Give the backbone structure.
Amino acid sequence: MATTIDDVLDIVHRTGPDLLGGNANHAPMVAEALLTLGRPDAVLPWVEAYKNRFQEHPVSRAPLAYARWQTALGDRQRLADWVAFFDHVLLATPWQTVLQEWVPRLVPGLMAAATHGLIRTGHAVRSLAADETPQRLHELAEGLGYWAARYQVLPGTPSGRPTGQSPRAAMQEVQRLHGPDFDTRGSIVQHMQGLNEYPDFAQTIDLVDTADDLSAWLSELTETCAGLYLVNPTGVIAFVHAVTAPSALRLLLPYLHETDAQLAARYAWQTCAGIYAWYATMPPPARGSFTAPSATPDMLIDRAVAAGGAHTIKLTEACLREYALHPQAVYLAAAHDAVQRVGTA
């Protein structure tokens, strides 16, 4: 029988959103990406090889009151309570309406779990858009709950007076905070907390304005970040998220009101700029700096599946999706590079 995302979710939903050691559980995201890439035969073997990292799902402690939801934002101990809360909401309300209500509340904390709250939600939404099943509805609850419980804001809120620069031009204005010898030990979450020590970063969110064509704006952001991934020798996994996170936001845009979508894009920019500020030792490369590899998209997919790394598979899928919308060689170059520099991670 062909593997479906529901088969995988039946397995994954018995496990927690974090792995042993504290990193995000990538199983639902990778499974959905592999199915999207047309590699269903690879899904269950990948999950089987990955499952030794699983830990049990946390148990709900107390119901989360709707009237007091803000007090539980970012409370790691309330993760299971958040998931149960969204399960209840999704039983009573169409999932599209839930996204309209809750994504605007969560996007200021888009850095949650190193952006995995957003990314897991994006993969869940894409599978739900294909078919609404109980497993897929619960996976959306898992994604939104993870996002809410790991909610993490970066310094700065939109002032309403952005400078109007494009993402590519604005990235040139972001100050890089470290030289090539800085210590990259620790998690992305910990590093992003370090931005609080640099008050000037708070102005970064106003370096860009969004555009009427938000899809094209997001393409420029992902193209810029794919280039940053390729030229920077440090923070490789962080730069993977600078591509996959805004690409995941793209999957949510059809369900958001226009003003909320524009706001979400500003926070996606802030997140990518934060990764650049902290990890980059090289400036953004000029557009057109990269040559497409000779490998075809099918070959790139095969290479990613063979490498087996969660980030390699997710980056490959995101880059090919972005390339289909905005055919720039940098996406194919990044997907080709992922096998060497990201590999099994």
Q: What stands out?
A: Residues 5-149 form one domain.
